[in-house]
Amino acid sequence: MKKLLSFILSIAMVLSLVACGGSSTANNTATETTKAVEPTELIVFAAASMTETMNEIKGMYEAKNPNIRITYNFDSSGTLLKQIVAGADCDLFISAAQKQMNQLDSSKEEKDNPDKNDFVLQGTRINLLENKVALAVPDNNPKGIEKFDDLTTDKLSLLAIGNSDVPVGAYTLEILEYLKKPVDELEKEGKITYGSNVKEVTTQVKEGTVDAGIIYATDAASAKLQVVDLATKDMCKQVIYPAAVLKITKNEAEAKKFLDYLQTAEAMKVFESVGFAKAS
Questions:
Q1: How far apart are CA 230 and CA 214, in angstroms?
Q2: Which of 24, 82, 129, 228 is the 20 to 30 Å CA partner of 7?
Q3: How many CB atoms lie within 10 A of CB 250?
């Protein structure tokens, strides 16, 4: 009897070990399956003026590509440039001006890329979008500012503009030079306040803490601000947004695919809804 009981216990132990082994195998298989479907993260650095449109496009793209998760970093193009050079992870860069992209592009001459940076993946750089520089005013336009020329008159008490290292700020300096009212003159008169990116300038106009602000037409549209004037090609350079996959990307194929999508009619419809145009 004792021998029979011992035999039965031995069989039970063997079956128990087999069951445990099977459970472990099942757990390992589940873990491997989870890893297999983990989405690829695409890190996109984009000019602050693209915040609303790019977030809308993110939802559209991820819905069609569940294997992709897009992470954005929005700021002034100058700040994004510094972060990339400092070693930040970035798969795709979209700047609000050629200047910042040129400073990452080894194919450009020394005057445009003095530090000889080599971040742009050659063959991927495109001109994606065009924007307009706008003169926007708060609700009800309390100072009655109607055009850029009014910035040189007593109608103006305080104007919000971007810092000089911000693309919209650089365009603004060109406009003020064209008006023969340089920024240092406005500073002496105490009529200038700055923003570190276009969203900060837009907020100052929206809150009515300034009489007017020089921003992009798209930011004015997104913030539902009144635009009283648009800069002409005589006033400042054409506002082109270049885009490129970067050499430091760990996801080249996925980054190229997303850049292709940004050029589709579906994505362009989102951009055009706030005033962007396809770059010519």
A1: 9
A2: 24
A3: 12
